[in-house]
Amino acid sequence: MTELPETPSQTAGPFVHIGLTPGAARTGLLDLGTAIAAEGVPGTRIRIAGTILDGTGTPLRDALVEAWHADAQGRYPPDAADGFRGWGRAACDPESGEWVFDTIKPGAVGDQAPHVALWIVARGINQGLHTRLYFEDEDNSSDPVLNLIEQPVRRDSLIARRTDEAYRLTIRLQGDGETVFFDP
Amino acid sequence: MTFRPRDPARHPPALAPAYKTSVTRSPRLPLLSLDPGPTERTGPVFRPDDLGQMDADLLSNYGEAAPIGERILIHGRVLDGNGRPVPHTLVEVWQANASGRYRHVRDGYVGALDPDFGGCGRCLTGEDGTYAFRTVKPGAYPWRNTRNDWRPAHIHFSVFGTAFLQRLVTQCYFEGDPLIARCPIAQSIGDPVAVDALVANLDMGQTRPFDMIAYRFDIVLRGRRATWFET
């Protein structure tokens, strides 16, 4: 079988919004990834939100985040509920650095606890970073991916805290409390 | 059937000190290897009606008149690591205009904005994995890194594939540009053969006489590992 080497990654740079959130950047096209789950898709409506901190603790204000998750029954498109796209894209707020997704809460996927895959690109990030968001009000104790993490304290870096208005997760790119990033 | 692991030697390391911004934005701990499960082996699906009619034509999808600059056709194929075309996948591009200026609130470069150029395009690949964009060749521009760094002319590419683990963002450079060898971002990739894979080559065969010069840039996403059970 032919084996072709993968095209190398490069940073998305500071102006990623021109291409990937062109509606917000007003470069002539409409934004994609604004509705992960259309109105009427079965499931509990939730908001997930957070910030991404660099090694100095400063929020990234120019990053882009994509979310990919299963529907309430744990199914991915094309096998998921009608109107469920599963994929969202959000630019960090240019002032606060906050990213936000409005969606439905995913179901467990096989033996994995409910989770949202997150993928982060930005200036200074040479290869998109894969991580996950889990929910503090779910039973995550037997999740096989969380349990791959050798140090239990690091598992907490993936668990979003429930607040009145959102599940919140702070992603730390390096240093104390560094988020677990995956090489899938 | 599973995906072959990513070859780190093909990619820039997270920490590439000559590209200064990477110093505070790179994880210090190793990535956790993960056997791809349903979450990683699936990915978003896009449909023709997600896109606008003119989305792939940067010569006309923003302003009233034609933008200023060298008219080019940038085209190629999206393949997987097994050499198979990846059909119906989303390819997105963004770039500076011919002056090296981006249409972005935070780009303060003195190079002129072009009222007829937005710098954003996208399309779905055809059945045979092909994509094509009409655009202008972007200009080189200076950036704050050392006191005198210039980016080679480049177009940013974003590609999905069929699995979220294939997600790729990269940049395409142009054959013959002397700035490639001097660019801390391009050279963050240690392997010169891998850097060459990001260089679009002049493609006289696809050049449109009296209209556009063509450049070819093929993109390879991660492939699957052959197994005894594969048919």
Automatic annotation (TrEMBL), chain A:
Record has Oxidoreductase as a keyword: yes
Tagged with keyword Flavoprotein: no
A GO MF term: ferric iron binding
All residue ranges annotated as the Intradiol ring-cleavage dioxygenases domain in the record: 41-162
E.C. number(s) listed in UniProt: 1.13.11.3
Domain of life: Bacteria
Pfam families linked: Dioxygenase_C (PF00775)
Keyword annotations of the record: Dioxygenase, Oxidoreductase
Coiled-coil spans in chain: none
Gene3D superfamilies (UniProt xref): Aromatic compound dioxygenase (2.60.130.10)
Cross-referenced InterPro entries: Intradiol_dOase_C (IPR000627), Intradiol_dOase_core (IPR015889), Intradiol_RC_Dioxygenase (IPR050770), Protocat_dOase_a (IPR012786)
UniProt xrefs under PANTHER family: DIOXYGENASE, PUTATIVE (AFU_ORTHOLOGUE AFUA_2G02910)-RELATED (PTHR33711), PROTOCATECHUATE 3,4-DIOXYGENASE ALPHA CHAIN (PTHR33711:SF9)
Record family assignment: Belongs to the intradiol ring-cleavage dioxygenase family.
Designated name of the protein: PcaG protein
Naturally occurring in which organism (per UniProt): Jannaschia aquimarina
From TrEMBL, chain B:
Family note: Belongs to the intradiol ring-cleavage dioxygenase family.
Basic and acidic residues bias (residue ranges): 1-10
One BP annotation, GO: 3,4-dihydroxybenzoate catabolic process
Any Pfam family: Dioxygenase_C
SUPFAM superfamilies: Aromatic compound dioxygenase
UniProt-listed PROSITE patterns: INTRADIOL_DIOXYGENAS (PS00083)
Protein name, per record: PcaH protein
Domain of life: Bacteria
Annotated region described as Disordered, given as residue ranges: 1-50
Enzyme Commission identifier(s): 1.13.11.3
Oxidoreductase listed as a keyword: yes
